[in-house]
Amino acid sequence: MMTSKPTLTRRKYFIDPAFQTRFIVTFLLVLVFGACLSVAFTWFGWFGGADTLTSNYDSGGLVIKKTSLAILPSVVWTTLVTTCVLGLLVWIVTLLVSHKIAGPMYRFERDLRDIAAGNLQKKIGIRNGDQFADMVSSLNAMVGSFNEKLTGLSGKLERLEAKAQALNSPQALIDEIQECRQSLRDEFRL
Length: 190
What we know:
By secondary structure, the protein is mainly α. The chain is about 65% helix and about 5% strand. The protein has four helices and two strands, in the order H-E-E-H-H-H.
């Protein structure tokens, strides 16, 4: 009988608000830095605009200005609008990308706590498309291997107990074997 992998759906986008906020703010700061750099390049007339003049009509008269100062208002408004639109897009994209990182990490922490508590039947699951799929596969293989080895050890202890009883071994030895098996059962869910 094949078991199907449960479908995990996105319930909330801010899983680890501190991490995700830092992630988003970092990218937004890079965007704002780029916008400020663009305005600064225009303001100081770098890249060929420092020594040129531009003429235009302003309030019915001809005005001659340095090119960088003449185009600065247009550059500032264009940069402001572009930064706002791109800022919104960056916020959305980084939220989604950070969710694909924070979501699996949240599930890893929760599932690893269960495994650390002794539940070796636990399988770590992530949504399709989330990051860390290879790591999840390796962790599940590791837990499965531990489960197999401890189940094998439990079986050996059971057989050892049966042999000890068949050989009329001292009760202290049989009790010690039973205590080992019980300890294994108490510590791990196999």
